[in-house]
Amino acid sequence: MLVAVVDELRRQSRSVIVRLMLFGLALVFVGACARIWVLSSFLEGKINNLASSQQQSTASYVAHDIDEKIKARLDLLRRAAGSLPLAALDDPTALRDWLKRHQDIAPLFSRGLMVVRPDGHEVVADYPERHRSPDFDVSSRDWFQAALNSREPVIGRPARSSLDDEPMVVMAMAVTDAAGRPVAVLSGATALSSPGFLNLVQGNRIGRSGGFLLVSPRDRLFVSASDHGMILTATPPEGVNPLHDRAMAGYRGTGVTVNAAGVEELSAIAAVPTAGWFLVARLPTAEAFEGVRDLQTFIATNSLMIAAFAVTVLFIGMRRFFRPLTEAARRMHQMADGHVELAPLPVHRMDEVGELAQGFNYLLGKLREQEAALRASEARMAHMAHHDALTGLPNRAMFHDRLQQAIDRSERGGALFALLYIDLDGFKPINDTHGHSRGDEVLRVVARRLSGLLRKSDLIARIGGDEFAIILEVEVTPAGAETVADKCRTALAEPILIDGLRLPLALSIGVAVYPQDGRDAQQLIVHADQAMYAVKRGAVRVPAL
């Protein structure tokens, strides 16, 4: 039962009706995809431009607000350091009252103000007053060292307070005497969560799941964030977020990137120049392009409804239109599957079905003709692949194959075989003087003469322009190989007659015997080649033509 169902499904899958239905569905699908792609690309571009512009405006506004608040604090420090009475450095009570007045007038530093000696080991005064351990020391703090080395207010690395672990940032400026020497450092600390400082970053979100990040490239630190868990955490390493890497290098603008958590975001980056920080306003693209996704869902749903309607119409209509083709298709399927003998289809009438059957019958005849021609061509190609086109002898490829076979047989049976390497002496002058056509005929005559000397078990091959090789396998001895070489020389002793010309030739033959002259093909060929050249050097020159 199951086999029958599978066969029916397989037959239906080959049906013209099914294919036309699938074609119709494909058109609907392609149309839907095209609409989704075109509209989505268009809307995404528009929404991206609009959202990017809005994100950039928001980021620039918040960054400007932060920058102004930092400037106000730095200006306060600059004015206070310039007006601090140096005599009060020796009167902690008077200095604390002075700090209190400034803090009451402009309470910008939520954690208070502090004056420290230049060695960093002694707090002269602070307001509000805090109880610190006797070994309190700020000499190694970055803001302290930076303030001593600068004549402008500086911003330290945001960190957690050693007293209550609250995130804060310290700003400081050196207090100098009339000679410009630092006599103290005035610092103010602000909690990152204090009202009126970074509240726009920490207290706001963009959309449902977006938000802000305030980054210090110098410290590679998230100074503040809408997600409070990211405050004072390290920025991701290079390579995790390409847009973040560009921002760390100085880029300010918008872009789409994938954050360290793997979420794709639309981000806008604005500078906070006074602190050397930058602000990122980010919104997941899934939320930014939510309208586009809704449109895609609508188009996909609409296309499915159209496809269902198209399938119904096609199924009912095509079965009626193509019923005459069913029998012809069934017969062709049976022949293709081998259930019936391959034979011409009957032609009952010359309509579309008759033309199809007649075309099949014509194709069947052509296929049989081509099959016969292909078999003949394969035979010719096999011969050409292993034989020299000029002489008809085996070529270099077949020679190497037979040589390896001879080595393998000798290794198994222990019998000797010999390799004769032959070069024609005097062939080049024939080619140069009488032309290549006569040279080709000389090579054919040489091939016939040498072939006539050999047994069926031997092989002669043309392996180069005027080079031949012979493999002697059956009952071979070194003396027997030399005898065959002498016969070859004798066969070429008589000049070759071509177009009334007597063309003298001689042979230089090198002999190698397996295994005494080499145990692999390369060693045998090298030995025979060297022996041949030794003969050539000692041979008598062929008379000039």
From TrEMBL:
Gene3D superfamilies xrefs: 3.30.70.270, 6.10.340.10, PAS domain
Alphabetized PROSITE patterns for the sequence: GGDEF (PS50887), HAMP (PS50885)
GGDEF domain residues: 415-545
Pfam families noted in UniProt: dCache_1, GGDEF, HAMP
Gene Ontology molecular functions: catalytic activity
GO CC list: plasma membrane
Residues of the HAMP domain: 319-372
Alphabetical list of InterPro entries matching this protein: dCache_1, DGC-Regulatory_Protein, GGDEF_dom, HAMP_dom, Nucleotide_cyclase, Rev_trsase/Diguanyl_cyclase
GO biological process: signal transduction
Membrane topology: Multi-pass membrane protein
Keyword rRNA processing assigned: no
Transmembrane segments: 20-43, 303-322
Superkingdom, natural source: Bacteria
Localization in the cell: Cell membrane
Keywords: Cell membrane, Membrane, Plasmid, Transmembrane, Transmembrane helix
PANTHER family, sorted: DIGUANYLATE CYCLASE DGCT-RELATED, GGDEF DOMAIN-CONTAINING PROTEIN
Entry protein name: Diguanylate cyclase
Biological source species: Azospirillum baldaniorum
Record lineage: Bacteria, Pseudomonadati, Pseudomonadota, Alphaproteobacteria, Rhodospirillales
